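Milestone M4 deliverable, item 7.
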Amino acid sequence: MSVQIRLISRFRTLLLLLGGSLAACTSTTVDEFRQGETGIESDESVVILGRRQASDYETRSEFVECVGDRMSRGEDGIRVVPEREFVDAMFPWFEPRTAPLRTRDLEQLMAEDVVAMKMQEFGVRYIVWLDGFTETTGRSGSISCTIGPGGGGCFGFGTWEDDANFDARVWDVGSLTNVGTINTDATGQSYLPALVVPIPLIARVEANACSRLATQLKSFVNGS
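Output delivered:
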């Protein structure tokens, strides 16, 4: 029995070590399309909002928060207005059903004195609209678990592919124009081997997409 336990322990250790290399193999691509000049002053800020008008999905607030948090880090960090704080202060103009879909809609909103005043209070120079989701496909394999008088365990192997695709559209509040779009696509294969205890080896596609997108957005907004 002790030999079997040692073998299982060694196998689990091997799977944990392998998990790091599998997660690191996530593939991420970033495409940028610039339509105007950008730059930001120290007293100006960016607000990042998730698109939620679609009926079949909505951009997760956790991803929006992740991008904003990473954009604000470092020596060249940018002041980011929290999404919920901005939407609440701007009620009802930026709720999902009433949020502007085009820059000309924003131009009409800015004609409202209260909207223009709130924008000035926040110091918003750019509005970044995030639109996208993470999809899981290609599931294969199976895992079965049993419980008996002598104990229980799970055995098998499963795998699936995750694809995180997000678009970021950058609106310049000063010129009321769309100054560019950044697309991030991260893909990776996840694994779930099980020998007594399942050990998930997860491809961190959404975390990678967040990091790469935030880095590119920071550079874009700073005018680099």
